[in-house]
Design a protein that fits this description.
heterodimer, A: 582 residues, alpha/beta, B: 279 residues, mainly alpha, elongated
Chain lengths: 582, 279
């Protein structure tokens, strides 16, 4: 039987001389009706380029197909040559036969048109529906992707919907004409883990309902397990291994696949935690950082006289302490207040109430700046592109009244070496370094002032999985060497499991559960922690079925003068407590 | 050096660069007085000569050498353009950075004043300022500078606002870096590219505005030469002595074209997406 899509020896190049600058070099695969192929690889592996070549969107991104054959079996059984096709022919294929969803739902929709209009467009173009018929079709499409209250939401503009909801809208648009092939390019990467689980479950259900084929592109091999029939692993533009899901996951043959499966952090239900925790040894040391009753509120001024009518309670009573040499992970979804907590600790956001103490002394905002340093999420945005590395590393020293002398230079050189960068880096500029190297630079910069606490705000989230593993390793080594305390903010449970001694789960601005990593991850007590852990995709749980849960984080906007009820805590074991749920 | 090589590797940059280079030399020669004849001396017997071997571009009504006056006038016009653009760049950078960095009320006040200035057509506003302050070279410098300040303020404020929200500025705050350090190293340094492009383009507009002011008799005062003044003098003799109008007219046109081509080339070259190595 002819496959739905057959790709043979595909070559794609970029730039003025695409033959010399190939990004995809000889990829072949077949996709049968109703089958799901997952393409797994790190950035630069050519996985997205391969996918974009199938519907020839690559033509608009400066790419050229330089060789190979691609045939699509059309609905009437005729074969369609995707490489020879002209642009008008392709317009008929895109959307009607091949649907596509992208990584960023927030930027894939036009912000000034209602989602109803945008869904209707697809029906108008491909099925010729107009007026009421189109509206009805759009409502059905939203129902299909399980958006509650579809009729009302059709009139919303995209800014009124959450990321998860918008991705559902994108799926609704992609599926409007019942395409027989759906290409999903990292559709959940920008979403929270619980939302990711919902979208994955939705895709699996829609696939069962419609019998369409799916090409699913991801960097997370753990995510593949729940959805794919076949897996293709790509590296440097070539498919290094492809085969049935179980065969790839259980008996990987290529060393790169083995590396992806073994060396990369995967979530293991709290069984892969660190064993060098300091807390249990009973030493009565002073905490490196103590946060007491931290509250951050942003007043809302809505009426004409600028009187506050309420406030966004971003952080609503957070307490924790952090011992030297210890890592406390703060986990939670976007909007839960985890980054605001970190920024408040650093003095980047003014706290409404609460106190901090760093080391033995209670510190004012100015003095906090030195013993607490931060590493940011995006290594591309956190280094000034116009400054040489030397100036970048010198900045914290200059800021604190120091001078760039022999001693400072020696410290720069030794720190660079310590984080694994070449000695000649000092005269170079940030753009000459890769993402992982830049994050190492940021770590070196944070260590220039000999801090006792380092706040790592999603510090490895933007990195490729194998780079991530190496940076985590470095962080652990540095922690041992310098006795650093880490405040590790992350949404990635697998990473947190590897690096954290303790975990604080934050939900709607409040800590709901805190304690020893192994204990919290293996025996979660609070319902939110349970939900969060259940949503983490793992290779072990590969055929598990997820419930679709469309609950959203409650609004953090409270009326003027609102105070949350004092927390009641329940203790489980020596270092594990959870908030009592109402 | 690298940037010069990049300009000459760029199609319109090469043309613009050569034009600007040639006019710069003419301007400098004119300013140093290295002209074929004295631009002010009146050779009474040689009035209204067409271009010939002695007077390459002919002579005017008073028997002054057009070529020499053109060189001196180019020097004069370029001087006014350079100083006024320097004024506008400095004022615009300071105001734009202040608006972006201080935010809130400062931003509002500064930008509203700039909006008011922008609401006037350039030449009208320059006229107004010169009329109030009295004509002369330095008043035209200030007038033209003020006219183009709002454009520089906008060019600086927008990118500065977005740079201010970047993580390296947050990082600098966590070290406790001073505002001066952040504004100069993290904001201003990243604004060098857009400012360079804007300076080049603004030179072209400033030349034109200076010519306009002189044409109206409010810029450079006779007997000193300036391109606008020469055009103005040629008005009544357009039919009998067309060279009086053609040479200064061409000079204005070609030099503005040169600055525009150069500005476009710089915009391409300094675009971070096109840049491989730091400029």
């Amino acid at each position: 039987m002819t496959p739905l899509l057959s790709v043979r020896d595909l070559h794609v190049g970029f730039g003025r001389d695409p033959h010399a600058n190939e990004v995809v070099r000889g990829v072949s695969f077949d996709l049968a009706d109703g089958e799901t192929l997952a393409i797994v690889g790190e950035s630069g592996s050519g996985k997205s380029v391969t996918a974009l070549s199938i519907n020839r969107l690559i033509d608009f991104g400066g790419g050229r197909i330089t060789g190979g054959a691609m045939t699509l079996k059309r609905a009437d059984g005729s074969l369609f040559d995707l490489i020879a096709a002209t642009e008008p022919q392709l317009t008929g294929i895109r959307g009607a036969e091949i649907g596509m969803i992208f990584q960023e739902p927030m930027t894939s929709l036009n912000p000034v048109l209602t989602i109803g209009t945008q869904i209707e467009e697809s029906f108008r173009l491909h099925r010729g529906l107009t007026g009421r018929q189109a509206t009805a079709a759009a409502r059905d499409a939203l129902d299909r992707v399980r958006i509650p209250d579809a009729a009302r939401r059709l009139k919303y503009t995209p800014n009124r919907l959450s990321g998860g909801m918008l991705q559902r809208v994108m799926i609704a648009i992609a599926l409007a004409c019942n395409p027989r092939l759906l290409i999903a390019d990292e559709p959940t990467t920008a979403l929270d883990v619980t939302v990711q689980a919902q979208i994955m479950a939705l895709l699996a259900e829609l696939k069962r309902e419609t019998g369409m084929s799916v090409i699913f592109i991801t960097h997370d091999i753990g995510l593949v397990a729940g959805i794919a029939d076949k897996v293709m692993v790509m590296q440097n533009g070539q498919a290094v291994e492809q085969g049935e899901l179980n065969q790839i996951l259980d008996r990987p043959r290529h060393p790169y696949t083995q590396h992806l499966l073994q060396d990369v952090p995967h979530f293991a239900n709290g069984s892969a935690t660190r064993a060098d925790g300091q807390r249990d040894k009973g030493e009565n040391t002073e905490p490196a950082l103590k946060v007491d009753g931290l509250v951050v509120r942003f007043p809302l001024k809505s009426n004409f006289f600028s009187r506050a009518t309420g406030a966004v309670h971003a952080v609503d009573g957070v307490d924790f302490d952090l011992m030297p040499g210890e890592t406390l992970a703060i986990v939670g979804e976007s909007g839960s207040g985890k980054s605001t907590t970190a920024k408040a600790v650093l003095g980047l956001v003014r706290s409404t109430r609460g106190s901090f103490s760093v080391g033995a002394r209670a510190a004012s905002a100015e003095r906090r700046a030195k013993p607490v340093q931060m590493v940011f999420q995006n290594p591309y945005a956190s280094l000034n592109p116009r400054l040489a590395i030397e100036s970048i590393l010198a900045e914290p020293v200059i800021a604190n009244g120091g001078r760039v002398d022999t001693e400072t230079r020696a410290r720069m050189a030794s720190l660079l070496e310590r984080v694994g960068l070449p000695r000649n880096s000092l005269q170079r500029y940030p753009h000459e370094f890769s993402g992982g190297q830049r994050q190492r630079l940021c770590i070196a910069r944070a260590l220039m002032l000999n801090p006792s606490v380092v706040v790592l705000d999603e510090a490895v989230s933007a990195l490729d999985v194998s780079v991530q593993a190496k940076v985590l390793e470095l962080l652990v080594e540095l922690q041992r060497e310098f006795g650093l305390a880490y405040l590790f903010i992350s949404h990635d449970m697998a990473v947190v499991e590897r690096i954290a001694h303790r975990i604080a789960v934050i939900y709607a601005g409040q800590i709901v559960e805190i304690g020893d990593t192994a204990s919290v991850l293996s025996k979660p007590k609070h319902s939110y922690t349970k939900k969060l852990i259940a949503a983490v995709p793992t290779i072990e749980r590969r055929r598990e079925h997820f419930e679709i849960d469309t609950r959203q984080v409650p609004s953090l906007v409270r009326p003027q003068g609102f105070e949350p009820a004092p927390a009641k805590w329940e203790q489980f074991g020596r270092d594990h407590m959870a908030r009592v749920e109402a | 050096m690298r940037i010069l090589r990049a300009i000459f590797g760029h199609g319109s940059g090469r043309i613009g660069g050569v034009i600007v280079g040639i006019y710069l030399m003419i301007a400098i020669l004119g300013l140093l007085g290295l002209t074929p004849h004295n631009p002010i001396t009146q050779f009474r017997v040689d009035r209204l000569h067409a271009p010939n071997g002695t007077y390459w571009m002919g002579t005017d009504l008073f028997g002054r050498d057009v070529a020499s006056r053109l060189m001196a006038g180019t020097g004069q016009s370029f001087t006014v353009a350079f100083f006024s653009v320097a004024f506008a760049t400095l004022a615009g950078a300071v105001l734009g950075l202040a608006a972006a960095w201080l935010g809130r009320r400062w931003d509002g006040v500064v930008m509203r004043i700039m909006d008011v200035l922008l609401a006037f057509p350039a030449i009208l506003l320059a006229l107004l300022i010169v009329t109030v302050a009295g004509p002369g070279t330095w008043t035209s410098v200030v007038a033209i500078g003020i006219v183009y300040t709002p454009i520089f303020t906008r060019v600086v404020r927008g990118p500065a606002l977005s740079l201010k929200a970047r993580e390296f500025v947050d990082a600098a705050r966590t070290f406790g870096s001073s505002s001066t350090y952040i504004v100069t190293r993290h904001l201003l340094l990243n604004l060098v590219a857009p400012l360079t492009v804007q300076v080049t383009l603004a030179l072209a507009w400033a030349l034109l505005t200076e010519a306009g002011l002189s044409f109206l008799g409010l810029g450079t005062q006779p007997p000193a030469a300036s391109l606008g003044l020469m055009l103005s003098d040629s008005r009544n003799l357009m039919e009998t002595a067309p060279w009086l109008m053609i040479f200064p007219g061409l000079t204005i046109m070609i030099s503005i074209l040169g600055f525009n081509l150069l500005g476009d080339a710089l915009r391409d070259i300094l675009d971070p997406r096109m840049r491989r190595a730091p400029a």
